[in-house]
# Entry
Amino acid sequence: MRIRKYDFDYSRRQFAEKVALGLGAGILAPTWQTIAATGEVAKAYPDELTSIELQTKGKIKPGDLIDAKNVEHAKHLMDPIMYKQVSEMGRRLRVRAPNKDITQFFPHAYLEATLKNNGKASFDETGNVVETATKGPWIGGNPFPDIKTGQEGIANLTLSWGRHDMSQYAVRSYSLNPDGSPAYTYDLYWTELNTTARTEGDPVFQGKKDMLRYQSVFFTAPQEQAGASFLVPWYYDQRKFPDIYGYLPQFRRVRQFPANQRFEPIVPGLSFFLSDAWGAGDPMLTWGNTKIVGRGPLLVAGAGNFKGKSNANWENHSWHGGPKGKTFMEYTVELAPECVAIESEPTGYPRAPVGKKKVWVDARNGMLVAYITFDRRGQLWKQVDAAFGPQIEGDFINKDRHGKPHWSWTNVHFHDIQSGRMDLFNHCKQIAGGYASQYEAPNGDEKAIVDKFCTQAAIARLGAV
# Structure
């Protein structure tokens, strides 16, 4: 008879103690120190937290599909909306063995910055993140790789959404009606350019210390929405509301929108709101009562979801489930030994329809792995279910300028379970208009990116094309 040194109750008790005392990640050893020393995370946790077979008492193993027949064994490893999708709506998840290579959890430059700058961040008297030594803007990477508070976890998400200094995502969205029929197909081009919290080159873009990022979105299809553009410049001070500017071709002018526009669809039929982006679509100090409410293992969609070899445009067409068999994309998931559950309320938005959000972040890299919102009555409302990972499929590798695999999001489900509407976002190679995904400015000319996509004049020009 084998007697386990660490049982499930031991891990559960340890996680509960860490939440109560505000301690960092890891059970057998501190997670981030283990990662920095060994390049992997397994030694920080007992076997019971790194094996899906042990978590499900042998009912599920790597290579299996999780579906309605066996999901009860994995219910404790998923958010409540994912459980409902699998148990009632025909969703399925393919299981793989956990990834042990920490380099596959980050873009190369972002990981290097996180290692280099570990321990250099703090909150100032206003609640903003600063480099402790200079009291200036953050200098790149996760400011708090060992998350001890809810605010630290949200800061990791907020300061660098896509974990690149500059990203442009070619996105194809398939929006579905509640009966599973197609509603809209949108092509959109999403630009993020950090002016601070950067990992390479000039630590402050064009000297703009008072800003965090430029962000814009530009629709290229279908014809009736082509040219619709939105620009959201973010201040570094997270107490300030970003301005929202929009260009709508039918009005032929740029107009400014109120802050509450963050909680509405930006074009007809989308369940996605600007507030939903990365689980941190609003400045973090415009939300409050932010706290860690739990720690524990979770199934996450990481490596193994990029379709660069099997689909010429990188799209995930493994549609299944729902009323017409096309409501979900099949994800490959793995067991993360520790994810941090954080709750927060929109205290800066008295008219927001959201009452509370709950975000789970992976303790290994601080990235979003699950996100749900509740309405003002406290009822479950929406899910943001994203897959992140290196751009590797088989022998195909999309490499960055360092010769390392590019790393980004691959797909997202935006599911409004109250209305039954679903958006399936695909991170594509290219969309209508010839706009292609890229994570480095051509020839390093980031100013050209700003001039073309991230000013009021730019979105008016794009809309007029």
Q: What stands out?
A: Helices lie at 8-21, 31-38, 52-55, 80-89, 108-116, 150-159, 446-453, 456-464. The first helix runs from residue 8 to 21. The domain at 1-465 is CATH 2.50.20.10 (outer membrane lipoprotein receptor (LolB), chain A).
